[in-house]
Known about the structure:
The protein is an all-alpha fold. Helices cover 72% and strands 0% of the residues. It has 15 helices and no strands. The chain has helices at 6-13, 18-45, 56-69, 73-80, 90-103, 107-120, 127-140, 146-156, 162-175, 179-192, 197-207, 209-212, 222-234, 238-251, 256-273. Helix 7 packs across helix 8 and helix 14 packs antiparallel against helix 15 (256-273). The longest helix has 28 residues, at 18-45. The radius of gyration is 25 Å and the shape is elongated. Mean pLDDT is 85; it is low at 1-6 and 46-53.
Amino acid sequence: MFQHSRQDSAEFQSGPCDRQTQSFLERVACLSLIAALSVFAAWFSTLPANASEPSLSSQAFEKGKAFLDQNRLGEAESSWAALRKDELYGPVTLILLARAYRQKHDIARSESLYREALDHFPKTIYASLVKRELVDILAQEGKAEAVPLLAELIRSADTKSKPRLILSLAQLEARLGRYDEAVKHYKMLYVRFPASVEGLHAGEALQSPAARGRIQSPTYTLSEKNQRARLLYQAGRFDLAGEVYEGMLREKPSDQSLRLKLAACQYKAEKTRLPSTF
């Protein structure tokens, strides 16, 4: 293992995307919670109303929610103690408590509540939300347990969400000192999502002084270079696509196909820089 300082390690794993990645995960979790609670509210509204005899569970939930709204978490927990394993109220109470404790920076308690929700309610509509929020906490804490969970989320993520999750995984692997694994994920971003903020950050991370102290300079196949250039061109980053083709031409100076592609990039890049005549 390469010798390194804490400062270098932070440099290799961190960057301008860190706060964006965290806020993105939090936004996804918040929107998922809102959607899940909307389902819960819609279901609850279909139950027969009987204002004179509300159920004990309903009374306990409302009482705990009132305490929670007043930031009295201990009393909210006590009010919801009997609901923690209830199929209807249990997942909701655990999620709300976990989020409240996290806002108070009691990460250990929040993590414990998320785990309880995942253990008791693994097949409810809330399970994916709980897993995402738990993974977010584990990743921020630098726990290796988050690695397979993040990998699972990446496999099921849509194309728009995938780069931020991959970046989170790369940064976690670097934080754990597993630089070869971190490089794999950074390279994936660099080649497959080159025009994204995360892809640009990956390129910087791979070329940083901290990275050079721990890893061999990454190499790319002809196919990977072509893929990166093509995706950059399609995204309108003609300048960066041109840089890739210039590098390839240095290796294959007689390749006319590359010259044509470079010329197209230079023309497009210049055209986008010209002021409009309208």
